[in-house]
Design goal:
alpha+beta; 2 domains; 211 residues; 4-stranded antiparallel beta sheet; 7 helices; Arc Repressor Mutant, subunit A; Methyltransferase, Cobalt-precorrin-4 Transmethylase, Domain 2; 4-stranded mixed beta sheet
């Protein structure tokens, strides 16, 4: 029980999320996708956002979690369940490991697959660059890169400041698919960095400073 209290005391973060109850397996699939595509994590079901233990009906919650991971995720995500009983209430901890088969996509209301990543305590839709990085990792491509005039021009475009994908495409006048492909490789090589800008809800790409 002390372990559960310790987890709750951590609050919500990149590898932990609280769910008061599970009523929509599709929405839950977004969290499963985000954890699987990032560093893995766990859902504490029956815990409110403020850490208050409300409890759940474990069989129903586990069924909904199964639906989220196996029916509404493509491909299906691994998931493990642990049930705790504390102060007369039941808490279900669903643990999702990082996937070796990224992206794990969640199906939306129209059954369209969409991949998410976990940033702090939020589930964010993955950018096309993330998808390209995962695709390269799965196919084994992207490990080599030739320093062409196009690469040099892209790097020159990023010299002034970090910017979102659409702006890079507009300023560089390089075709969007090519920019996505090059950014994915440059990030893997550690030349370009990527961070999420909350005010604009966009991923920003820029040159990494030399250490």
């Amino acid at each position: 029980m002390s372990d559960l209290h310790q987890l709750i005391s951590e609050g919500e973060h990149q590898q932990q999320d609280f769910k008061y109850r599970v009523t929509d397996a599709r929405k839950l699939a977004k969290s499963v996708s985000a954890f699987a595509n990032t560093d893995g994590g766990r859902l504490l079901i029956g815990v409110r956002d403020d850490g208050h233990i409300s409890g759940v009906r474990s069989d129903e919650e586990i069924y909904m979690m199964h639906q989220a991971a196996f029916r509404y995720c493509r491909p299906a995500s691994s998931i493990q369940f642990d049930t705790y009983h504390i102060d007369g209430r039941t808490i279900v901890v669903a643990t999702i490991p990082p996937s070796d088969h990224r992206p794990i996509c969640a199906l939306d209301e129209d059954d369209r697959p969409r991949a998410y990543i976990r940033i702090a305590d939020e589930n964010i839709v993955a950018s096309p660059v993330h998808l390209a990085m995962w695709r390269n990792a799965q196919t084994g491509s992207g490990s080599l890169m030739t320093y062409t005039d196009t690469v040099r021009h892209l790097l020159d475009t990023l010299t002034s400041k970090a910017m979102p994908l659409n702006q890079i495409v507009r300023l560089s006048r390089i075709p969007r698919p090519k920019v996505i492909s090059l950014l994915a490789r440059l990030i893997c090589f550690g030349t370009v960095g990527c961070h999420y800008h909350h005010p604009t809800q966009q991923f920003i790409f820029g040159l990494k400073e030399e250490e």
